[in-house]
Design goal:
Layout: H1 2-9, H2 13-20, H3 33-44, H4 50-61, H5 63-90, H6 97-147, H7 160-179, H8 182-210, H9 217-222, H10 228-231, H11 236-243, H12 245-250, H13 256-259, H14 267-295, H15 315-328, H16 332-365, H17 372-375, H18 386-399, H19 409-434, H20 451-468, H21 485-507
Helix pairs in contact: 3-8, 3-14, 3-16, 4-5, 4-11, 5-14, 5-19, 5-20, 6-7, 6-16, 6-18, 6-19, 6-21, 7-16, 7-18, 8-14, 8-16, 15-16, 16-18, 19-20, 19-21
């Protein structure tokens, strides 16, 4: 009996640190390291970043720039991940980046830092749902086209209105699934992890074996070519910068583990492990996937031909089709592997919806958005922020409406998602870099003297990443080729900062403690 009572009194280390920071445990803390890693891995996803941008990045500067670009971006991503892991170990809260920014920036700048960080992150995550829904619809469009006879055989290419229906349909399905208990979400994300690991291994191994011919290593690793007649970009350096975008878009999302720390056992230790493990797995598998696609190219120029079997709309689908049809005179194998890739988009969108809802919940808990009392409500039975889930789904659906008229919707949504999501990383990392070391209370994962140099490299890399996603991606600049991200972000962030200057700064104080009596030793 005493033993049972003793076990009942044991407080989880993550919950203990949460209480010290002034928050009581409200969400159900039952996720293990493996489940947290699965959700983080699913949010980054193996296929969803690379697949939709592979064709355009390959066209900018050829295979060598694309292949080695992944290695370069992976290298700098480790600096960001390590910096965030240290902070996550110290602040295992659902608000994650937003909470980190408030406490690391101190009482004077904390409210503004958390305000900027929270809104950047919310914008990035909600737009991130849109990128998954759009790219998932794009893969589904290719599957339908190949199943009905291909573009050259009278197949059905989904029109804009049906594409929008698929986009909204995926968004609604993710919202419904996220309304169920946390165990359901965690279970689906575990499936997602194995889906991507097994499916990714099958594609990486099978595709080059099935392809009748493969490109030589000299082509894959050293061949550089620009396409100014198509992209309008004659500068080789500029082309290389744009070819890196696929890697920069793919290698983020590892903060998903931080969003779930209030629901994770031993979050001060398992949160950082999940962040770094996700980066490691995706870095290796992502490069292998890029190599598999590039080695399996049959005819580079034919990939972009609007009269090819996939209507020139989706380069990875054409590579898969060429490989299987060339070997077996059938598109069945390509369709199966496209379904594997589509599953990755489905699970990725589900995970990003989970993360987005947690950020909206944390911000509304601290009264940082209009009608906060509505969005911070927890479902009485399932113990998940259901209202926040549906708010994210509604905004994401609205983002997709321009699909009916505009050709560059995906470019804009991708840029907004990347800048918002990654830009949110910069605020707490910069605050950690400039704060006094004696004011920082380290968790189990601590960098010590290496913290500032790591944070500096991470911060500069994030600034560079945000800058390049604002650049024009095609010339000459016309209405149908213009990157709308600067305008969209400028208007959105301008209104948010105007709200801050006129009103929010008077009442918004950042994270609001919901434990009146808390221990404090002067350290955050």
């Amino acid at each position: 009996m005493d033993g049972e009572r003793g076990e009942a009194l044991v407080v989880d280390s993550g919950e203990k640190r949460l209480n010290e920071l002034g928050y009581k445990q409200e969400l159900r803390r039952e996720m293990t390291l493996f489940k947290t890693l699965a959700i983080s891995f699913s949010t980054m996803t193996l296929f969803t970043g690379i697949t939709p941008l592979y064709g355009t990045s390959l066209q900018y500067a050829g295979p060598a720039s694309l292949v080695w670009g992944w290695v370069v971006v992976s290298f700098f991503t480790w600096f960001v991940g390590v910096a965030m892991a240290e902070i996550c170990s110290s602040f295992p809260t659902t608000g994650s980046l937003y909470f980190w920014a408030a406490h690391l920036a101190g009482p004077v700048w904390g409210p503004l830092a958390s305000w900027c960080c929270a809104w950047l992150e919310a914008i990035g995550l909600i737009a991130g749902i849109g990128t998954q829904a759009y790219a998932g619809s794009q893969v589904l469009q290719s599957i339908i086209l190949l199943c009905t006879g291909t573009n050259t055989g009278g197949g059905y290419l989904a029109p804009r209105w049906l594409f929008l229906v698929m986009y909204i349909g995926l968004t609604l399905i993710w919202a419904v699934l996220n309304t169920f208990a946390l165990e359901v979400i965690a279970f689906l994300d575990v499936i997602s992890m194995w889906w991507q690991v097994i499916g990714g291994t099958v594609i990486v191994v099978m595709l080059p074996l099935v392809a009748k011919t493969t490109q030589p290593a000299s082509y894959v690793f050293t061949h550089f070519q620009t396409a100014p007649e198509v992209t309008g970009i004659s500068s080789g350096a500029y082309a290389v910068v744009l070819s890196f975008l696929v890697s920069q878009y793919s290698l983020y999302g590892y903060d998903a583990a931080a969003h779930l720390t209030e629901e994770t056992k031993g979050a001060d230790k398992n949160g950082p492990i999940a962040i770094l493990s996700s980066i490691g797995i995706i870095s290796v598998f992502g490069w292998a996937y890029i190599l598999a696609l590039t080695f399996s190219i049959q005819d580079f120029s034919y990939l972009y031909n609007p009269n090819n079997e996939t209507a020139g709309t989706f380069v990875p689908a054409q590579i898969l089709y060429d490989a299987f049809h060339g070997r077996y005179h059938s598109s069945a194998g390509a369709i199966v592997l496209l379904f594997v890739i589509w599953g990755s988009f489905f699970f990725g969108g589900l995970s990003i919806t989970t993360s987005a809802a947690r950020v909206v919940y944390a911000l509304s808990r601290d009264r940082g958005i209009p009608f906060s009392s509505v969005w911070r409500r927890i479902h009485p039975r399932h113990k998940v922020p259901a209202n926040a889930v549906w708010l994210c789904a509604a905004v994401c659906a609205l983002l997709g409406l321009p699909i009916l008229r505009i050709n560059v919707v995906f470019t804009a949504i991708t840029s907004v998602a990347t800048i918002g999501w990654v830009g949110g990383y910069a605020v707490p990392i910069f605050a950690r870099m400039v704060m006094r070391e004696e004011d920082f209370r380290p968790g189990p994962f601590y960098l010590g003297a290496a913290s500032r140099p790591v944070c500096l490299v991470a911060f500069l890399w994030i600034c560079y990443t945000c800058a390049v996603f604002l650049l024009p991606t095609s010339y000459p600049i016309r209405m149908d080729t213009f990157n709308y991200a600067p305008i969209a972000l400028g208007v959105c962030l301008g209104l948010i900062m105007l709200w801050w200057a006129l009103d929010a700064r008077k009442w918004f104080k950042g994270p609001v403690r919901n434990i009146d009596d808390h221990n404090s030793n002067g350290k955050v």
